[in-house]
Task: inverse folding
C-alpha cells in the first residue's frame, strides 16, 4: 500500500507542471497589462512582462524535468544493486 501511495504522490508532484507554466505566463501578462494601463506605455510593458512570464515558466519546466530525470536515474541505480 505504501508503494502505491508513494507512486501516486510522485505523479501528483509533477502534475502541477502545466499549471505552473500557464500560471507564470498569466501572471506576467497581467503585470504587463496593469503597468500599461498605469503608465500609458501600451503594448510595451505587456510584451516585456509576457516574455518574462514565458521565460520563468519554461525555466521552471526545465528545472522540474531535470529533477524528475535525476530521481528516475537514482531509482534505476538503486534497482540494479
Result:
Amino acid at each position: 500500500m505504501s508503494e502505491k501511495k508513494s507512486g501516486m504522490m510522485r505523479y501528483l508532484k509533477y502534475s502541477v507542471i502545466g499549471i505552473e507554466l500557464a500560471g507564470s505566463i498569466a501572471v506576467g501578462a497581467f503585470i504587463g497589462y496593469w503597468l500599461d494601463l498605469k503608465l500609458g506605455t501600451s503594448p510595451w510593458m505587456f510584451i516585456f512582462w509576457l516574455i518574462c512570464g514565458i521565460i520563468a515558466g519554461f525555466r521552471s519546466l526545465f528545472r522540474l524535468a531535470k529533477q524528475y530525470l535525476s530521481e528516475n536515474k537514482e531509482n534505476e541505480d538503486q534497482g540494479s544493486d
